[in-house]
Design brief:
Elements lengths: L1 E7 L1 H5 L6 H11 L3 E8 L3 H13 L5 E5 L10 H8 L2 E2 L1 H12 L12 E4 L2 E6 L3 H22 L6
Parallel strand pairs: 1-2, 1-3, 3-6
Antiparallel strand pairs: 4-5, 5-6
Helix pairs in contact: 2-6, 3-4, 5-6
Length: 158
């Protein structure tokens, strides 16, 4: 499974703080046996996030794209809007499952506006930006991830 990771974070791009989420998510992906084909840190900019998602999906670079961060209520939290602009079909059950599991850990999970969807044959999943929450989100979707990738790649039928 080829996985791309996008980290929208103004603070990481500016050097205000190092990105810990990308490496944590990459390690978790590798532990699953997945291949990290891209790890990009970018500003919290709706157009840049959307364009990166379109480039990766349309280029067939990744089976799954995790976008970690920018899903909350802050004025620069634009990941859901960028994702909605890039996807062709929504996959609401994925975001709902992540929120449900996260809500058992923290009441702040109800503030998540994360979405998931499909563009071409790529599955795009928003996760929270903290390293722990991003990895927990991967754990939530892990049981269905390979089947989703197989369906999108035409290697399985439902």
């Amino acid at each position: 499974m080829r996985i791309a990771i996008l980290i929208p974070s103004d603070r990481a791009v500016s050097g205000e703080r190092p990105d810990a989420t990308g490496p944590a998510l990459a390690d978790a992906v590798k532990a699953l046996g997945g291949e990290v084909v891209a790890l990009e840190v970018m500003p919290d900019d709706q157009d840049r996030i959307r364009d990166a998602l379109i480039r990766i999906a349309d280029g067939g670079e990744a089976d799954v794209v995790f976008v970690a961060g920018g899903t909350g209520f802050g004025p620069r939290d634009v990941t859901p809007e960028a994702t909605k602009a890039a996807i062709e079909r929504e996959a609401p059950g994925i975001a709902e499952a992540i929120r449900a599991k996260s809500l058992a850990i923290t009441p702040h999970a109800m503030l998540s506006r994360a979405v998931a969807g499909i563009r071409k044959s790529s599955l795009i999943i928003n996760t929270p930006g903290s390293p722990n929450a991003a990895v927990e989100s991967l754990e939530v979707v892990k049981p269905a991830l390979q089947h989703a990738v197989d369906l999108l790649g035409g290697r399985s039928v439902h």
